[in-house]
Amino acid sequence: MRIAILGTGVAGTTLATGLVAAGHDVVFGSRTPDAKTDLPASALAVPEALTGAELVVSALPGAVAVEALTALAGELAGHVLLDISNAVTPQFDLVYPNASLGEAIQSALPQTRVVKSLNTLAISTLIAPDTLAEPTQLFLSGDDAEAKSLVSGALVSLGWPVEQQLDLGGIETARGPEHYFLLFFGIMRLGGPFNIAIVR
Ligand SMILES: NC(=O)c1ccc[n+]([C@@H]2O[C@H](COP(=O)([O-])OP(=O)(O)OC[C@H]3O[C@@H](n4cnc5c(N)ncnc54)[C@H](OP(=O)(O)O)[C@@H]3O)[C@@H](O)[C@H]2O)c1
């Protein structure tokens, strides 16, 4: 699958490494593509990167993602957008305390099908879930079933089988996984890596 990743930081590059290893055709969309010569996939200007992409990943800093993506609303129309960001302030407070970044992006981009996932994971487990002692879970939120199915397939190729994917429902359910950041940060300070396992 052709996948465009917006954001060339540790989250975007880690994800790209896993997606390239899984055989996907990955490209970065960057504000300064010519300066990005050491990435796991080639970097293009953002509009070029979006052309022909079946899946677009937003790995932008959460606090600026809505503004940055809104500026691309035309180019992103019709695309499936996987949002993996956590929107927190420099003090690690939630930017959307009674809502979520996923909902804010979907509201700003009504012609784009937004799926929230991967934001609950530590970087080291993002593309290596089997490095943890037991199977753990990740979450999907989004209004469009076809878009979630596309993302689910990409997650399977990263090593996250469907049994380890929990579809929470519409994009409004992104609040839970996003607000989990507060707990994630607290546990991370005690030592990582770790992840959530749902036990019934
Ligand atoms: N799910 C996970 O496993 C996981 C783990 C850690 C972090 N995250 C989330 O992933 C997101 C990205 O984290 P990161 O540490 O990789 O971020 P980062 O290094 O701070 O930024 C990512 C990239 O976004 C682009 N960017 C920065 N400011 C921008 C702006 N104002 N407008 C447009 N583009 C901008 C830059 O790429 P260019 O200069 O090339 O345009 C930058 O390299 C965060 O929200 C974080 O919470 C997820």
Mean pLDDT: 97
CATH topology: Rossmann fold
**How much helix, percentage-wise, in residues?**
25-40%
**Count of beta strands:** 8
Poorly predicted runs: none
Q: What is the CA-atom radius of gyration, in angstroms?
A: 16 Å
Q: How do the strands line up in the largest sheet?
A: 3-2-1-4-5-6-7-8
Largest sheet: 8 strands, mixed
Structural class: alpha/beta
Helix-strand topology string = EHEEHEHHEHEHEHEHH
Cα distance spanning the termini? 35 Å
Topology:
Elements: E1 2-6, H1 10-21, E2 25-30, E3 43-45, H2 46-50, E4 55-58, H3 62-70, H4 73-76, E5 80-83, H5 101-108, E6 113-116, H6 123-126, E7 138-142, H7 145-157, E8 165-169, H8 175-179, H9 181-190
Parallel strand pairs: 1-2, 1-4, 2-3, 4-5, 5-6, 7-8
Antiparallel strand pairs: 6-7
The structure holds NADP nicotinamide-adenine-dinucleotide phosphate.
NADP nicotinamide-adenine-dinucleotide phosphate is lined by residues 7-12, 30-32, 36, 59-62, 64, 68, 84-86, 118-119, 121, 123, 126.
